[in-house]
Design goal:
By secondary structure, the protein is α/β, with parallel strands linked by helices. The chain has a domain of about 210 residues: NAD(P)-binding Rossmann-like Domain (Rossmann fold), CATH 3.40.50. The chain is about 40% helix and about 15% strand. It is built from 11 helices and 13 strands. The strands form 4 sheets. The protein has a 7-stranded parallel beta sheet with strand order 3-2-1-4-5-6-11, sandwiched between helices. Strands 7-10 form a two-stranded parallel sheet. Helix 1 crosses helix 8 and helix 7 packs across helix 11. It binds nicotinamide-adenine-dinucleotide (NAD) and uridine-diphosphate-N-acetylglucosamine. The site of nicotinamide-adenine-dinucleotide (NAD) has 26 residues, from helix 1, helix 5 and strand 5.
């Protein structure tokens, strides 16, 4: 298949491009570099030996989308492109609705014009809100706790409505839990701009000396060690989940939602210990109050992905932290 990856030079898109090429597919990447760097394309060539078919464009630009699809025979689209920071979404909701929701509608319209009706959508476990009924199954109630989460839930609903209107569409919304890790080459990885909002990139920057200490947001949760528990998944497992999902579109599944997680919870303290094992560096910590909007624990019921897609995460916590450390220590300032 030839697969178009919007947001293809981003963290998850770049790892998915590798997994798709390894599975024998051809990829076209589209990105506006709002949260990624052109250097990713050189690194992808180094890893795969393939020069990427790349299009610098904004996903809200219908003419650009038409140009990409008119020139190539696209079989399916994986739609990663969207801004993704919770705090920024509260400060700039219209930016999130314009790009996250508006960009998705423009993309789906362009796909329809070119009769490309197979799409995998990047959703998030954030659509479960603060549900404490664990593990989270796909039929758990959804709820929205910030504008970013609303964009994800709205796009899922748009895909469901689209399939209801025209059964020639096939759409799978993948609900990612907490993606971490990097390609084992150390050539590509997560490169957040500014202060990392997420745990693992923050720990990695402490370990490499860019930040003095990790602040643990709350150690009084009702969890075994008092710190927050999440379902961290290696980005290459996640990437392989996309390969399985895009190949499953050929079975004409209609519209479906599927969790991508490991089914295992890991606490903040356990993550710090795993990172110390991987790096050999002691991570200084400070404990602060809980971060507003955080829940105590979240992990997936990952059985639907195994049943429907034949996919299960296989990489361990120690592989996740070893791969993050290799990426961060070889690239202390990310792609810069
Ligand atoms: P990322 O920011 O690394 O990648 C997104 C890419 O999309 C970036 O390269 C960015 O430049 C590009 N982009 C953003 N807006 C665009 C636009 N309007 N036009 C063209 N390109 C645009 O993020 P990621 O972690 O790879 O996430 C990919 C997707 O997965 C996002 O939709 C995100 O919401 C979703 N997701 C991510 C996580 C996570 O923790 N990383 C969790 C759940 C869901
Ligand atoms: C965050 C997003 C969520 C998104 C998810 C995907 C927020 C509020 N939520 O959730 O919408 O779907 O990423 O990956 O940003 N922690 C610390 N210190 C830190 C950073 C985090 O103690 O400096 C703790 C958090 O309190 C939490 C755990 O580490 O218990 C994981 O945090 P994070 O990586 O931000 O992920 P989520 O909270 O799951």
């Amino acid at each position: 298949m030839r697969i178009l990856l919007t947001g293809g030079t981003g963290y998850i898109g770049s790892h998915t491009a590798i997994a798709l090429i390894e599975a024998g597919h051809q990829v076209t990447l589209l990105d506006n570099f709002s949260n990624s760097k052109p250097a990713v394309l050189d690194r992808l060539r180094e890893i795969t030996g393939v020069t990427m078919d790349f299009f610098e464009a904004d996903v809200t630009d219908e003419d650009a989308l038409d140009a990409v699809m008119a020139d190539r025979s696209i079989d399916a689209v994986i739609h990663f492109a969207a801004p993704k920071a919770v705090g920024e979404s509260i400060a700039r909701p219209l930016h999130y609705f314009e790009n996250g929701v508006g960009g998705t509608v423009k993309l789906l319209r362009a796909m329809d014009r070119h009769a490309v009706r197979n799409v995998v959508y990047s959703s998030s476990a954030t659509v479960y809100g603060l549900s404490e009924d664990l593990p989270l199954t796909e039929d758990a109630p959804t709820s929205v706790i910030n504008p970013y989460g609303r964009t994800k839930l709205m796009c899922e609903q748009i895909l469901g409505d689209l399939f209801a209107s025209d059964s020639s569409w096939n759409a799978i919304a993948l609900r990612y839990f907490n993606p971490v890790g990097a390609h084992p080459s150390g050539l590509i990885g997560e490169d957040p701009q500014g202060v990392p909002a997420n745990l693992v990139p923050f720990i990695a920057q402490v370990a490499v000396g860019r930040r003095p200490a990790l602040t643990i947001f709350g150690d009084d949760y009702p969890t075994p060690d008092g710190t927050g528990v999440r379902d961290y998944i290696h980005v290459l497992d996640l990437a392989e989940g996309h390969v399985a999902a895009v190949e499953h579109l050929a079975n004409k599944p209609g519209y479906d939602t599927i969790n991508l997680g490991t089914g295992q919870g890991v606490s903040v303290r356990e993550m710090v210990e795993a990172f110390e094992r991987a790096s050999g560096v002691a991570i200084p910590i400070e404990v602060a109050p809980r971060r507003p909007g955080d829940g105590p624990a979240s992990w997936a019921d990952a059985t639907k992905a195994a049943r429907v897609l034949g996919w299960t995460a296989t990489r361990t916590l120690d592989q996740m932290t070893a791969d993050v450390w290799r990426w961060q220590s070889h690239n202390p300032n990310g792609y810069d």
